[in-house]
Write a structure and sequence with these properties.
The protein is an alpha+beta fold. Helix content is 25%, strand content 37%. It has two domains: 44 residues; 118 residues, Tick-borne Encephalitis virus Glycoprotein, domain 1 (Sandwich), CATH 2.60.98. A hairpin with a 6-residue loop joins strand 5 and strand 6.
């Protein structure tokens, strides 16, 4: 009888260990999912058509009710005349954003300019416009990528098209 009790106790310990490891794995999964969701939701903002909004580099905005998302990917050029400096030309900043629409083909990269070049572009049935780029350069220091904020506005196009610069 004592051998049977030892065997039952051993099996009970094994079940307890399996339960512990399964519980640990499940809790770890939920914690990881919560952290991932928190990181994603920190970057995603919901905006309305025709409403001006700002994005930092690598930040995403989702257009309410449209299934459209835009991500500010990079500042490709910033030759704007720094504050406190007299320039012959005001300069230009050029950014790249990525647009995508749920269930509607491939995402598209779009380049927009503050002064010299297209300030808006069409993606599917939408016009994506660069309203401004902050901060303005200073003569004494360069703008770090993490400091840039693009002001954008998205409207429905009256005529449909895939990608068209204006």
């Amino acid at each position: 009888m004592s051998m049977q009790r030892e065997s039952e106790a051993s099996q009970e310990r094994k079940r307890g260990k399996r339960f512990f490891y399964a519980s640990f794995a499940l809790i770890s999964f939920f914690i990881s999912a919560a952290i991932l969701f928190a990181q994603q939701s920190k970057d995603a903002g919901v905006v309305r058509l025709g409403e001006e909004f700002e994005l930092k580099i690598n930040q995403q905005a989702v257009i309410e009710g449209e299934g459209l998302a835009v991500v500010f990917e990079a500042v490709l050029e910033d030759s704007r005349c720094p504050k406190g400096v007299d320039c012959i030309w005001s300069g230009n900043a050029r950014i790249r954003i990525r647009s995508s629409k749920k269930g509607r083909g491939m995402p598209a990269s779009i380049e927009l300019n503050t002064d010299d070049g297209p300030k808006s572009s069409s993606y599917l049935d939408y016009e994506v416009r660069l309203v401004g780029l902050k901060p303005h350069p200073k003569a004494s220091e360069a703008v770090r990528p993490s400091e840039y904020r693009a002001a954008l506005m998205i409207k429905k196009n009256s005529s449909a098209g895939s990608i068209k610069n204006q």
